[in-house]
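Homework-ish question, so no full write-ups if that breaks the rules, but can someone show me the predicted structure for this set?
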Amino acid sequence: MLILRAVLAAAIALIGAVVIVRMLGQGVHFEILPGLVLGIAMVALGTHRLSLIMRIRRGST
Amino acid sequence: MPTDNKPELRRSVTPWGSFAWGYSDVGADIFVGLGLVLAAAAGASNVAFLFAGIVYVCIGLAYTELAATYPVAGGGQYFVQRGLGDVFGFMAGWAVLLDFTIDVTLFAWTCVDYSSQLAPVLVASVHPWVHFLVTLGLIVGLCVLNIVGVRESTAFNGFVSALDVVSECCILCFGFLFTFRPELLIHNMQMHWPSPYQLMLGISLAIISFVGLESISQAAQETQRPASVVPRTSVALILTILIFALSYSNLALGMHTWHPILDAHGHQMQFWEIFPNNPDNQGKAVALLAQQIPYFGALAAFYVPVLGAILLLISSNSGVFGSSRIAYAMSRGNLLPSIFQRVHAKYRTPVISIATFCGVAIVELIFAALPSLDPNANAVYARLFRGESGLDFLADLYAFGAATSYSFVFIALIALRLHDPLSPRKFKIPFNIPVRVNGERAEFPIIAVLGFLGIGSILVFTLFTHPIGRIAGPLWLIFGLIFYLFYRRGRKLPILRSHKQDWRKQQIEILRSAGELELMDEYLANLKAHDERLATEATA
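A: Not a homework solution, just the prediction itself:
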């Protein structure tokens, strides 16, 4: 279960990074803002979840 | 408030249970909100979600701080009553009650809409009477189930939530990898940017995708060690919901569909263009989006409508349960008559509360369904309310109730920070200005002010752009205030002032029953230091 959650968290962070790169590839203007915020939120959530999972794993070993 | 020997709620909700509880409530909102916002805000739908999402993050942080500090059922109503007094507590609770009753109807309605994706006999525009009767049957069924005391289990909530999170992550991953075209998104934003009126309408509808944060505080009373668990699960919940709302709206605008979508003349349409002026599509937007994802869409076309319908039904049920619980809490706080505390002799459930607010939900359903059922009513709605559909009617009131109660919660947060600085806050919203109030060090929350301005503007947008919401919403509040006035007068309780309560004693009891003994000790030490300082000042 923990591994599945870690995979999901890593996938979200990765997709977030992809979204950021693809939005920035369009140049810097107002229209990329919602996509950029989305990418940042995905990276933040993914890393937040991963850090929690790592903490749980460290606690159990 | 567990101040006497009456039975208390058992603290059995785990961190995942706390997340699932919130997710099954707030997570269903995007299933309703996406289509409505795409129809209203067109090329600026993602901006509407971004604006509402930023306000939602502020609201989420406020609820997290308050729920971790005062982990009692009652939520916004309790915080506002404690921070601003009885009248405002009543108004906040009454607005939440409106939202819960709308929640029952709106989510039962969209549950039927999602089911119609697989059972065409349920399509509202084709078979309005069938749609109405099935929705009515769902509401009556939920009412009966709640009266006999059958609730979905936390385990079932957790299972459905987990399935939905995985499913939405798949939609998101496949969608952004295979169908998302950033250049198409930017093109749509530039070519289909709405008028300011439509943008305001879109923003006011986008907030309904983030309603249900009451569940954070509802869950707090039943969560083990809430001061530690609630902030952790809330942050994950807030980010998850924000991501899903932003990703769906960005995907919908920048989506290169798997199968071409054609209009009546055979011209190719973009995905978002299937929503304006089409309430049937608006009611099942996520299912329509999921089936346009390459590869994954073939599978999603079958299970997303079912998953959506189940999640929406759970959310509808949380409206029945939540309204009865809020009414019960308000009754115990002397804001509503004691009849709402009355429990059924056999089933031990608040039967009067459940039946009353399900009755209100049915009245709302009748008003929402009237235009599609009766041509004369349709003509009246067209003349008075610009022909709003049933879904719009429910969304109007939902947005009004949420914006009103959240506005009060922000003010209550500021008031409690200043008036109750001694209560230990394990989680505190960042960005504060240190101030001194009556000799005590307090912190003024800047985020709460920004959040209040944000939700205040959404309330103004709601009143400005929703012809039904601007009439029915304030009428609901006025009716409630008149009721409150007569009730308090009849009970010989102060009408505009607050009934005296020992908040210190209550706070100690709240922390003790939550198992937060360290925080209770800290609170007692703060009280002792405060009293000693006052005594020293008095003798000096």
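Now go work out the reasoning yourself. Hint: Chain A has two helices and no strands.
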